[in-house]
Write a structure and sequence with these properties.
The protein is an all-alpha fold. The protein contains 9 helices and no strands.
């Protein structure tokens, strides 16, 4: 039950909130249905100093963060949105990736035949994007005809 709230608890602990009851109330407002004892058990290693301040959380995976990025922002649970916002705040590269990844996903998801949006996206990524995004854009540019045909086919 607590897995979805580990990142939040970690960040709050690092911010100085060490009261298990207060943290339980906070995550209950985010949808946690467990009790304070589970939170206390989770925080026990923090109290003994077993978790360093820069320890990555094993529940935070590339797949999980990618899922948060590709989902519609309105479909993220509060805790997921907060965690993604926090990660983007800490990593400008992730913030840029998130912005660039969501735009073409929206075009495909909404089945919009928006060739201009695709061309603008390609140009922006070429100028501003990170190396990995530029590589993706270059591949899509090479397959431009197929991508545009797919956009046309997807749209009513």
């Amino acid at each position: 039950m607590i897995d979805d709230y580990r990142l939040y608890l970690h960040h709050r602990w690092m911010e100085g909130c060490t009261n298990a009851s207060a943290l339980t109330r906070e995550i209950q407002q985010l949808g946690y249905s467990g009790d304070v004892n589970t939170v206390r058990r989770h925080l026990r290693p923090y109290r003994t100093g077993a978790i360093p301040t820069d320890a990555p959380l094993h529940q935070l995976t590339v797949r999980r963060v990618t899922g948060w990025i590709m989902r519609r922002p309105g479909q993220l649970r509060d805790i997921e949105g907060k965690c993604l916002d926090d990660l983007c705040e800490r990593s400008p590269a992730l913030a840029t990736t998130t912005e660039y990844a969501r735009r073409p996903a929206l075009v495909v998801r909404e089945r919009r035949n928006d060739h201009l949006a695709f061309e603008v996206w390609l140009a922006e990524v070429r100028l501003d994007g990170q190396r990995e995004l530029r590589t993706l854009a270059a591949g899509l540019r090479r397959d431009r005809a197929a991508v545009l045909a797919a956009l046309t086919w997807l749209c009513p």
